[in-house]
Amino acid sequence: MSLMGLDIGTTGTKAVVFEHEGRILASAYREYPIHSPRPGWLELDPEEVWQLVAQAVAEAAHAVQASDPVSALAISCLGEAVVLVDDQGSIIAPTILGFDNRAEALTKRWLQDHDPFATMQITGMPPSQVFTIFKLMWLKENQPDVFRRARRVLCYQDYAIFRMGMEPQADYSIAARTMAFDIRAKSWSERIAAMTGVDVNLWSKAVPAGTVVGEIGGKAARALGLPRGCGIVAGAHDQPAGAVGCGVIREGLTMDATGTVECLGVALRKPLTNRAMLASHFCCYPHMVPDLYFSIAFNPTGGSLLRWFRDTLAGEERQRATAEGRDVYEILMEEMDEVPASGGAQGDLFVLPHFTMAGNPYMDPLAQGAIVGLSLTTTRGQLIRALLEGITYEMKLNLHLWQEAGIQATEIRAIGGGARSLRWLQLKADMFNRPVAQPAVTEAACLGAAIAAGVGTGVYSSFAEAVERLVRINQTFVPDRERAQLYEQNLEKYRRLYPLVRAFRTGSDG
């Protein structure tokens, strides 16, 4: 019998089936659109998402039905996104995504009356309009009829469980991403409910990752192509799930996930919610692994920056990739080879990678990107390298700020689409001045979810045993000392870019 990890993301969903030693048996992917009914509004259609999730699950399950049927499934999912349903179980509103900015003014008003540090002590979240609680407050204020009809507020993990015909349950990590959860008591916070007017009874029951929430019944089994009685297990927020999937279950080990978003995630032995964490908007919340905590630093413009270059400036390379049956990104990366080994670290060309908004440490929804240092001698290879360096400088800055807050990040483990590029992994090792390991399975969120499914149903005795059996490292990239020193020196130049661009945007002096 096999295990399925289902990852429900912001723009698509992937279902991957693993045998018990971690080998991938089947996978399926479906993509769905982000809707923007007004400028600054970003939404998902929950019914559209569920139909495509169901298709992905059915396709992957069908592929192994005869040879190695799925015995258990767990879910990894995006955070800061919920589905509101009424007393009949019907969807009553679109999902408002975290990067939707409609609650920005409300959040600023709320923070005038509430101490953000005190709130962070409860929730582990530096208050920001990103979090679900502010989106619900916005609905209560601006669409009161919709809010009054809501009988359940479901994160996408518990929404999927609900659609599978079971009582919805949310693991501690996804519950925490709402900013309505007490990360130490590991329960919905009555104090936050009193401060926001969002009743704790709207939320699903909170449980540890790896908890069996039920067995799938006949109707749902037929719709999803799963065996009747397949165990459904609480998974986690996608970032801690990805961390488990690459073995980040000891303090100091750090995940670097490169997809649309670039995200660092580090395992912690205990909650850390000091003022330095608050100043850089670093969160702290329960890990997927019992008794551990987790912190992330992210930039919303991650691999999407290279996609922008591909779609805007690489028409010829796209045609070539199609003709040769190759990955267009591989072709683009080859152009970096024309740049001298130390040329990219000389500090002549910088990219500020805020092409959507700024994540940590600024959390600026209006931030803008910049390319600084262009000349008539700038080559495509130099520009491509500078784009990758900009994304990586942003994460290097966060590593420094983590250290100031008391977080030590040692070895980096790279996952996601960016982990397939050996050139980028070496650049990261040089930039971070730390070893960067490439796991054998880069679809780590799905593997982490499958591990939770296995722990919950007794296939593995613990998360530690599962990681020992399933997580393998392909190779490790060690930093080049000379380039690492140059990147360290140039970090101070990079740090000056955001204040300068912000001042230019706002017309202020800083």
> What is the assigned CATH homologous superfamily of the largest domain?
ATPase, nucleotide binding domain
Largest sheet: 7 strands, mixed
The CATH class name of the largest domain reads Alpha Beta
Tally of individual domains:
2
Strand order across the largest sheet: 17-18-16-15-21-22-23
* Secondary structure category: alpha+beta
Number of strands: 23
Q: Which radius of gyration do the C-alpha atoms yield?
A: 22 Å
**CATH fold name of the largest domain, please?**
Nucleotidyltransferase, domain 5
Q: Span between N and C termini?
A: 59 Å
Uncertain regions: pLDDT < 50 for 5+ in a row?
Answer: none
Count every helix, treating DSSP H or I runs of 4 or more residues as helices: 20
What does this structure look like?
This protein is α+β, with helices and mostly antiparallel strands and 510 residues long. It has two domains: 244 residues, ATPase, nucleotide binding domain (Nucleotidyltransferase, domain 5); 132 residues, ATPase, nucleotide binding domain (Nucleotidyltransferase, domain 5, 2-Layer Sandwich), CATH 3.30.420. It contains 20 helices and 23 strands. The strands form seven sheets. The chain has a seven-stranded mixed β-sheet, sandwiched between helices. It has a six-stranded mixed β-sheet with strand order 3-2-1-5-14-13. A two-stranded antiparallel sheet has the order 4-7. The chain is globular. The termini are far apart. The mean pLDDT is 95.
